[in-house]
Amino acid sequence: MYLLLQIRRKLLGLVGEESNVATVLGANFSAGFFAGSLAAAATCPLDVAKTRRQIEKDPVRALRMTTRQTLMEVWRDGGMKGLFMGVGPRVGRAGPSVGIVVSFYEVVKYVLHNHYASS
Question: Pfam families under this entry (predicted)?
C-alpha cells in the first residue's frame, strides 16, 4: 500500500493543479499496476507453496505440511526457479487487475468529491 501511495503521489505531483479525471485515472492505474505487479512477484513463493499443498494427494501429508517445509521442499527440488514458477502469469494477472480496481475506486472518489464540493 505504501508503494502504491508513493507512486501515485509522484505521478499526480507531475501534473500539479491540472488534475482531471484522465490524469487521476492514469496515475492511479499506473501506480496500481506497478505495485500489484511487484507484490505478486514478491509473494510468488508463498503462492507456489500454497498450490503445492493444495494438490498434495496424500490427505495425511497435506494436513502435516507447513509452509516452511513446503518452501524448503520446493527449494530442494527446483531452487530459485522452482520458488518463482508461474511468476509471469501471476504478475500478468495481478498488475492489470490491481490497476483497474485502484483507478476505478479513485476516479469515483474524485468525481463524487468534485460533484459535492461544487454543489
Answer: Mito_carr (PF00153)
Per-residue pLDDT of the chain (119 residues; tens, 9 = 90+): 788 888 888 988 887 777 788 888 888 999 999 999 999 999 999 999 999 999 999 999 988 999 999 999 999 999 999 999 999 999 999 999 999 999 999 889 888 988 887 76
DSSP 17: G
What's at 62, amino acid-wise? A
CA angle 112–113–116, rounded 5-degree value: 80
Instruction: Quickly tell me which residue has 505531483 as its cell.
Output: 13
- What is the number of alpha carbons within 13 Å of residue 81 lying toward its C-beta? 2
Cell numbers describing residue 86: 508461474
Q: In the chain, helix, strand, coil percent, each to 5?
A: 90, 0, 10
